Amino acid sequence: MAHPGSARFFAALDQLVAEGEIVIDRPKGKPHPRIPEVIYPLDYGYLAGTTSGDGDGIDVFVGSAPGAGVAGVLLTADVVKRDAEMKVLVDCTTAEIVIARDFLCELGIGGHLVKRVSGSL
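== Inorganic pyrophosphatase ==
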């Protein structure tokens, strides 16, 4: 069973996603703006009306499993941008979680996965 703090964390993310609008500004197949040879493997965007560490909306990767909800988060530290962020994995399969993490590695950022575990609701 997950720690109670983990349950509250994921419940808060569920609420932000449920009450917010996901804006996809970088659809699957689009090149990255700074590194055009790297292509987005999943839809990528942000939660409108939220604020992340960089002052923009909370970043999200959206997968192909509608209704699956928040599967986890990827924690990143980007020395070029000089920031740390959280990227929420919404409606992602296990394979898509790996794909998102690999994508961040291609960007030279990497990411630490915090996967939602059973019992974290």
